[in-house]
Design a protein that fits this description.
- By secondary structure, this protein is of the alpha+beta class.
- The protein has a single domain, classed as Nucleoside Triphosphate Pyrophosphohydrolase (Alpha-Beta Complex), CATH 3.90.79.10.
- The protein is built from three helices and four strands; from the N terminus they run αββββαα.
- The strands form two sheets. The chain has a two-stranded antiparallel ribbon with strand order 1-4. Strands 2-3 form a two-stranded antiparallel ribbon.
- It is globular, with a radius of gyration of 14 Å.
- The mean pLDDT is 91.
């Protein structure tokens, strides 16, 4: 999100895409790249990943018609994501996430 600190953007995305609210870890645990589809083109995107200590699950959220919330272990989630770099990141940080 242009003009917003990465952590703020991550918190907003968590709320919009998964309907969760909480406290973000201060530091990113890594990043991944992907090609985002726009109306007439694709653009390269770099995403920084921040662990979120979930304190609330919303009953309704912006993208709930398009997304399903599920609680998975990082290695399970890695099998379901489309971005290979994100899958590798999830697998690599699984032990570290146990501390958050």
């Amino acid at each position: 999100m242009k003009g917003r600190p990465d952590r703020e953007a991550a918190a907003q995305e968590a709320g919009e895409e998964a309907g969760v609210v909480g406290t973000l870890h201060e530091q990113s645990v890594g990043s991944f790249h992907y090609w985002k589809r726009l109306k007439d083109t694709f653009v390269p995107i770099t995403v920084k990943v921040y662990p979120l200590h979930v304190q609330q699950e919303l009953d309704e959220w912006k993208e709930q018609k398009y997304r399903r919330r599920a609680w998975l272990k990082p290695d399970q989630a890695a099998l379901l994501v489309d971005e290979p770099e994100l899958a590798a990141l999830l697998e690599s940080i699984a032990p570290e996430l146990a501390h958050f």
